[in-house]
Amino acid sequence: MVSHTHHGVSESFWISGALILAAFVYLRARLGVRRQNYGSVDGWRAGSFFLGILFTWIATASPLAALDHEMLTAHMVQHLLLMTLTPPLILLGTLQKPPVHGLMQRSSQVIGRPLRSEPIRQFLNVVTHPVLCWLAAAGTLVVWHIPSVFMLGLRSQAWHGAEQASFLVAGLLFWLPVVRPWPNSLQWPESSLLLYLFLATLPCDILSGFLVFCDRVVYPVFLSSPRLFGFSALEDQQCAGALMWTCITVVYLIAAAIFTAHLLSPHRSEELAIPQSEVRRIAIRHTDPQSVEVA
User: Fold this and answer.
1) Which pTM does this prediction carry?
2) What is the pLDDT of residues 278-293, one digit of tens each?
3) Which residues, in sequence order, are CB contacts of 29 under 8 Å at separation 6+?
């Protein structure tokens, strides 16, 4: 048995302040996009981003965060919010062309120069490769649910913060190939993303099935927790596993359905039916009148 490390009020305060600041910066950037005619940002994108910020606050700084050391179900809700729901919402709301001017423009030029170098670009291509994104998400999920590592996050507030941050980062990496918030990002056959989503359910199914059907409490620390909502430690574990199983399946199924509808849409079919050489030839025909006969 180990003692629980409860969520600190000061930590919740700083997390809430950081999330409010992120929301304010995003809102200002969004208004700047509209004001400077860089292109409009759909209202649903802004709503998606703010909903992702809200889910992050619920998982890390709300009263729920104080229950994650008392109930495995609350702990699982945190993980699902940080890794499954928040990342796609934030990526969907990402600004494609953030406005830069004045000092921000000079700073972005200074920072952007090394980022455009070939070694950095190759590194980013490797880090954001779908295979590595999948492995990062699956590895983070499995490692943090190993009993000894799980207990480390309960004993230390610092390790608990690292656990939450790793779930959020792994979630962002995992959803990056699916959402593709930036144009021409992550060039990969789109149809293979259905397999990507299907394979991602396997580690979750194995872990959640183990928690649901195991006849003993995997994390003994919860045996000393108060009986909230009338759940025993084993029932709490089974509820956490069932919640993970259901949520992951539903979210990935919705994402796969949306992606399939996009692939089968008539507009998409027309785009795929036109060869790339024909697209270039049509562009030449419309931009250079003298080359009409050649085309």
Assistant:
1) 0.78
2) 445 544 444 555 544 4
3) 95, 98, 99
Q: Which domain covers residue 286, as residue numbers?
A: 265-295
Is residue 70 predicted with pLDDT exceeding 80? yes
Q: Are residues 144 and 276 in the same domain?
A: no
Give me the phi and psi of 117, to 5 degrees please.
-70, 155
Asked whether residue 145 falls in the same domain as residue 184, the answer is yes
Same domain membership, residue 275 and residue 177: no
**Looking at the 3D structure of the chain, how many domains does it have?**
2
Q: Give me Rg for the CA atoms of the chain.
A: 23
- Joined together, the tokens standing for residue 34 give 């509209």
**Judgement on whether residues 33 and 46 belong to the same structural domain of the protein:** yes
